[in-house]
Amino acid sequence: MKYSFLFIVFFNVLLSIAQDKKNATYFDAQLFRGNVYKHTNDIGHLISGHPDGFMLSYNWKTYGKKEWQQVYNYPDYGISFHYLDFKNKYLGYNFALGLHYNFYFLKRNLMFRISQGIGVTSNPYNKETNNKNNAFGTKVMDNTYFMLQYKKDNILNRIGFQAGFMLTHFSNGRFKAPNSGINTIALNVGLNYNFDEYQESIKDTLPSRETYKEKIKYNIAFRTGISEGPVPHLGQRQFYHIGLYADKRIGRKSALQFGTDVFFSRYLQDYIQFVSVAFPKGHKSYSEADVDYKRVGLFIGHELFINKLSIETQFGYYVYKPFNYEIDIYQRVGAKYYITKELFSGVGLKTHGGRAEAIEVTLGIRL
């Protein structure tokens, strides 16, 4: 690849910086190549080659000094940078900086990584100069990637090998239209280098399972942010989503949820007005510019507790949706951070299938 030299230079520079340190850390560098997944017909013109790129990651190992590290089989956490060339003149290239966790299975030979970060694109949508890019409406956006790999440490002294595949997603969460987003599936291969000597893990110090039994907890979550309708230049509007739900802890790692959402998505007011003018005969609700924009949903969910951080996944169904917009099923995935045992904050992505609707910033209470 054209940037293989840059890849090698980065690898050697970081090796030289960290070579004398004895911290429980390691570095990995990888190359990847793959395909854009066509999740909607709207992005067909943006698929014109095989995207490729590289990834650089710095990782901290855990050895069980904290209880959650033992529960999750001594995961790693770290920071990563990756560069992706889409091989398309409208998309250009993206790069992203993110935080990640590495989880291990099958005697630590199989590694699963999940990362959340910020991405930047070289060629965002522009009405005059790049109106074919309906995937990225902003220069700065959200990036999420998942990676599944075979990983083997210390094959040649402290140098190891890893290979597998990844899925990386770039989208602005409809912060601004257009926002079809791009999903890329790629194969990757790379090397890792351990900066520390082998350490023994702490084992068999977990508290009793009885420790995690809780009564049903009741949650109030206030979510907000800025979003725009699916048509460019309608204008960005603030939204307010209110969640009321109960959860029941079923172990150290998990809690099940059931509740309701009320959505005050003000961008829908603009979109309803636009549709009533542009398509007055297209649908009964389209001819009524004053149709209610509010929605109500019921959802079930799961919360995965790690330490003070947890991962939340919810699936909902609209029981009140006067305006015929998107499908009736919605999803939410996000990260929560417990400031105290009762107070939490977080950020999440609300979607309808593969179509993002909003990036939600959350403040809530669990009683």
Task: Describe the structure in your own words.
The protein is built from three helices and 16 strands. It has 367 residues and is mainly beta. It is flat, with a radius of gyration of 23 Å. The relative contact order is 0.12. The model is unreliable at 1-10 and 16-22 (pLDDT under 50).
Descriptive key words:
disordered N terminus; eight-stranded antiparallel beta barrel; 367 residues; single chain; 3 helices; eight-stranded antiparallel β-barrel; mainly beta; 16 strands
Question: Which SSEs are present, and which pair or pack?
Answer:
Blueprint: H1 4-18, E1 25-37, E2 52-60, H2 67-71, E3 76-85, E4 93-105, E5 110-121, E6 140-156, E7 159-171, E8 182-194, E9 217-228, E10 236-249, E11 254-265, H3 267-278, E12 295-305, E13 309-320, E14 329-338, E15 343-352, E16 355-366
Antiparallel strand pairs: 1-2, 1-8, 2-3, 3-4, 4-5, 5-6, 6-7, 7-8, 9-10, 9-16, 10-11, 11-12, 12-13, 13-14, 14-15, 15-16
